[in-house]
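Lab meeting, action items carried over

1. Structure of the two-component assembly. Owner: GW. Status: complete.
Input record:
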Amino acid sequence: MTRSVRKPAILLAVTAYFGVLLLIAAGLWVSWQRAGIAPDQPIAFPHTIHVSQLNLPCNFCHIFVDRSRHAGAPSLSTCMSCHRAIATDREEIKKLTRHYEEKRPVEWNRVYYLPDHVYFSHKRHVKAGVDCSECHGKVGAMKKIRRVGTLTMGWCVSCHRARGAPLDCTTCHK
Amino acid sequence: MKRRDFLRVLGILSGSTLLSSCGSRKTKDFVSSVLPPEEGVIPGEAYYSPSTCTECPAGCGLSVKRREGWPIKLEGAPEHPINDGGLCIRGQSSLTRLYHPKRVNAPLRRNGDGKFNAVSWEKALSLVSESLAGSRDAGRKNLFLSGRTTGSLSLLIDAFCGKLGVERLPEFEVYSHSAVAEANGLLFGERDVPHYRIENADFLLTVGADILATHVSPVSYTRKLSRARSGGDFRWFHAEPHLSLTGANADRRFVVLPGREAVLLAYLLRQVLEKGPRRHGLPREVVNALPRYSVENASDQTGIPAEKLADLADRMTKARFPLVIAGGVSTSHRRGLEVAALAGMIQWVTGEIPGLVDFARNEQYGGTGTYHDMEALSARLSKGEAGVLFLSRTNPVFSLPGGFAFRENVRKAKLSVAFGDLLDETVQEADLILPLSHSLESWGDVEPRRGVVSLVRPVLGSLHDTLSEGDILLRLMGAVSGEGPATGYREYLFAEWTKRFGEKGKDALIRDGFVEESLPEKRVTLNGGKAAAFLKGAAAEGGEPKAPVLVLAPSLRTFDGRSRGLPLLSEVPDPLTTISYGRWLSVSPGTAKALGVKDTEEATVSSGDWSQVLPMKIQPGLAEGVFVAGRDFVDSPPLRTEERTGEATWYLEGIRIEKSGKVAAIPVLSGSPSQQGRGLIPDPSHKDEKHHHGTESLYPEHEHKEYRWAMAIDLALCNGCSACVAACYIENNVPVVGKKDHLKGREMSWLRIEPFYGEAGNVDFLPMLCQQCHSAPCETVCPVYAAYHNPEGLNVQVYNRCVGTRYCSNNCPYKVRRFNWFWHLWKKPLDRMLNPDLEVRAAGVMEKCTFCVQRIRAAKDKAKDDSRKVRDGEVTTACAQSCPTGAITFGNLLDTKSKVYRLAHLARAYRVFEGLGTNPSVYYLGGAKGGPEREGHG
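Predicted assembly:
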């Protein structure tokens, strides 16, 4: 093999190598955005009925939203306070009743999640007058919950800037 | 390396790095529980429940910090009659006992080949009840031995033993304080350790009693001392043969020759008799029997210089309310009873007995047995008298001296049943192990001081298949009668509490965590006849240990050895030597020179047939010819029992030391025992002007609008107890890295205690943590702005920005930044105690003290709810919260009314390395303990 043959081959290999790296990086970047994800849930809970038709306020079920960093998922006893009598023949409600009777908590698949190094408080945002829909979208129109915001740092910071909220790192980073 | 190999390696490395970040990040933490959380509990917010620490017999009140049900930190309960908000290093660490990965998690039975098999509780209990009956029929005795037990459990054990025909043996405690109890029995007819009201004294003489670290109720004494010292006109002198944390903190410390404390006290008794303060006289026969010492004579005998002895006597006779506490190593030798009795007589003469020495609220050591009782038990066991032998919360196999041969004797019982949580030496010898629940998993109560009942209550269900001791006993009673348990222990306790305190009192106990009964004052009188008879038969001198002497001292970190199993207590170094892992023998610099041993060089210590290899640590402040080791550092030492008191003599005399020439690998974390003239603790306290150059900053000044967080640490109050260090570890998820990393200098502690020795052997402790500099050298060198200054004056480290160049650490003059060389794992279930308010830092990331930024955030969050600023005292750091002396104050320096502002502007406030121009936010209050009079040893 002569030198002249090897040179373009090497060039091609290096280009391909970095090209693949770039592609993977780009793929990861896209996956980190995670907007639009909508995982299946153990019980297909329709926000459409509860929010749009019944007009229940968000904190009817997410009772800690203005008291804690976590909005919290309602306890099954809250669900059962209505569903002991309502729509008991539906498949999903039967599932719920089984969970309740067997004293098995329901583990939801997270739609919105933040890495360990981020501190986020629902309470502070709600008390500052941020409407739920600004981050979570029109939940009442979603049969299955779909992530609306990207939850990237830029997304958080742009809103903090616009509203004059604190921009110090320790506000959010722990 | 060839170019091709290089490219190949590069490809594999970069590809795998990228792929490794592609994992799924889904977590199952968004859960609909079946029932809503209990009243007042909000997920995501911490809340506190009262309980009691059971790590040592002191019974300090706890305020258990919980998140989503799980206990994540223990704090001292504010207003608790014992510890009043403080909690020691062992108490802080006892949370790791709950989550210890090696806890016994089911009943275990020894099978034929000596291994343990898990069995069910039913099987285990029916085995015990059959054996109980079998032994009785075979004419054997069933025996119950436990550690010190107070409160309702003691009543239940009595009921259990009465019903099942089991003999309850006197309780076994390594530190039984029997010499002190015996002396009080002799003099005043009260065979117990009284409650010392240090806060009412204006002069304190402690003799051998390590009141700050291990003696009876250390946190309680520490709080009281702080209160007494804040009164101003208070002097504290301490005499001891070795060097303890208590000695290091006294206003003046005397090194007394081992075993000669009685001479010192006899001299002082004569002095107070002659010069006062005299509130009671002594009968003539007692005075006549009292040995007479001139100051020179006493000085010769005790090794304390005559002028210092005279000064001590002068101080004591001029005091209005002098208090003498003798104990520890000074009452556990052949003249121990004399020491305790003479201390009692001084107290009698100087008076103020109920105000200073309170027998109404004694410390409940009356029921604790002596080493004589253990000798009797050993003899009975070796004769094969025992049928079922219950061993509860006690480790005599490890603790008893070699001569007892307790290990062999336990094996001679027909069935030995151990109640325990970790596999200690005694539990391992048992035929049947019944695992105990942790105190945070069970109901109970303790009465560490008469009239003070402290609640033990579960904050979580049992992690393993364990039961509380009360439940085990009730079930056993049920199994024997064949009727099943009448009630659970909880119901039993509730009934007991209602009986004793009434319905309202019971509710108060459950709500507040303690009940303090009002007790009538108890007046005691000296039994002159007995005292005289005793003095005639006794002698202040003679029988002292033959030099060279090895003093076996109680340990701050392990007490009598019972806390050895908790990893955090090995990770936090001993404050006097800064050794973290391992065992060692302390030796004075002079003796080391004479022996020709270097620091950490190994030597064989022998006494008679007994010998052990230990590394030597050169310890300034020790007397020549006196060696010191922790009680739990020596295995089965040949200790004798003192005839009259039944106290073990914690001295090995006439020891031989042979150096091996090998240097042991033990981690000594401090760089130097001396300040090397750098003025870290200026003495006398003044601003160190000579190092001050004009400082011109190249950077713009930081602006602070609302808060500038700062800390003040009063070095006159800090006693080096290291509770803050343990608290910091637990609060901030600081990893326990182990001995190997410590030897490489990779310890992770954010806060350390640095002992600095003066030329006279005196010690000053300097808690060193991130100084949160205003002009921080770490910030300017960070290439990625991970270290930056925030608007509230904190040096923030943004972990997810850090790329691990370690420039900041190299540029920090205080050496407080720690680098994560590895991913640190919390072995299950230890990960349950991780504080969810902080992330666990990843490998390759620098970390350091944050002034507990998560606590600041929580306080600000609360303040914002009420649209106000954080109030002074509303936020404090974990170290400040745990400090038993209240040496650490945290607050906002911009608030001119805050406590920290006041302290930072005191004349004695200074900052370390002020001349460097770093402008730190940590203000140290200099001025040595005890003011200008403080000295090293006498």
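2. GW to write a short summary for the group page. Key points so far: The beta strands of chain A are 106-108. Chain A touches chain B through 45 residues (CB under 8 Å).
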